[in-house]
Amino acid sequence: MRLILALAALALAAEAGPLPTDRDLLNELSIFLNGANVAWPCASTKRIYTNTGLYVPKNIIGTRVQMTKDEAFIAMPRLRAGIPFTLAKVTLRDKFLCNPLLIPFPCLASQEEGNCQALQSVVDIFLDNNDILWALDTGIVNTLEEPIRRCPPKIVAFHVKTGKQIKSIDLSALVCETSRLQYLQVEYAPDGRAFVYVSDAATRAILVYDCSASKGFRVVLPKAVTLGCTNRDVLYIALAVKPCGDNVLFITYLSGSRMFSIKTSHLRKGSAQGVVVDVGPKLSRIVILGTDGGNSLFFREKGHSDIFMWNSDTCFKPENFALVQSGGDCRLATQVVPGFKRLMWVLESNFNDYILGTTGCMGASVVIHPLVKNADY
Fold first, then answer.
1. Selection from 262, 202, 208 nearest residue 234 by Cα
2. Where are the domains of the chain?
3. What confidence tens digit (pLDDT) does each residue in 105-151 have?
4. How many CA atoms lie within 13 A of 288 on its CB side?
5. Which residue from 368, 370, 349, 285 is spatially nearest to 58, judged by alpha carbons?
6. Predicted confidence (pLDDT) per residue in 71-107, tens digit
7. pTM for the full model?
8. Closest to 136 in 3D by CA, of 188, 213, 71, 63
9. DSSP secondary structure string, 103-119?
10. Buried b (16+ CB within 10 A) or exposed e, 358-367
């Protein structure tokens, strides 16, 4: 916690004079996202989308985020009808905007529903150190209403500075009819090859794709990973980057009773036989929120807003979990990421209300703000 607050203070000290408080950070740097604030090519396009039901502002919700120096990229899965695009960016340059416009990324035409060359429903994104944004597209829309498989699942990579698509990976050969793809992580092996890891909750597997060789395979996890599971609900994966280069992928089911890990060097070889490590028991169901780009993982308990940080070089025990944000009752975090102004950022929303359809006419309440000690506002 001291580390997070120290970073926040150092990053803003030159601009703000006196050291900022938690409240200062929230007031000055909070980004509120709303489906009504959309950048359209022209008024007639907005009118057509609205009149045909392709644009229903209250149905838009951001669930995942990645940040660069002056931009944030938002994944907005097509969980309901009326979501005109599923991947957006907001611009932070010039003057920090409290309510920025959601801009289709790379453009509106690249996200046409039913066009399998376009994005259908992006559920997770990952920004690597080479300014490449990787998007996991399940191909399934209207997930909460009447799920429709528009297209096969795929991963699409864009250069964030140009918006140019540099790779599209068809995952059809790596999935089955029951697959549920949920999260992705990307790393570069010591020899420079890019590898993508995707969690498939329904089949207890990690999809591994070697981008240089243009081939992938499934790594089936041991049955022990499902210990305590009432069902194979959510399979979280989080990549811990180690200074020595021997990176580790942490794995756990939401309803699972234990945390597991596997060195990515083993994943790249295509087998989990005898190399998955039981990290330790979980005292409750936890939601993995992300990492700091290094050793530390962030998480919260299911249904609770307090955010904890765990240094993965230490034992997975409560005494090593640092409370880094005390949240309120209105929103729950869905991701923590490093980003703008060299701070750690939290994406929060009233996702549970959205799932239940109880958000009202204003739709989802989504905010991105610095990770601070007290976020009750």
1. 202
2. 68-168
3. 999 999 999 999 999 999 999 999 999 999 999 999 999 999 999 99
4. 28
5. 349
6. 999 999 999 999 999 999 998 865 556 678 999 999 9
7. 0.92
8. 63
9. EESS-SGGG-TT-TTS-
10. ebeeebbbbb
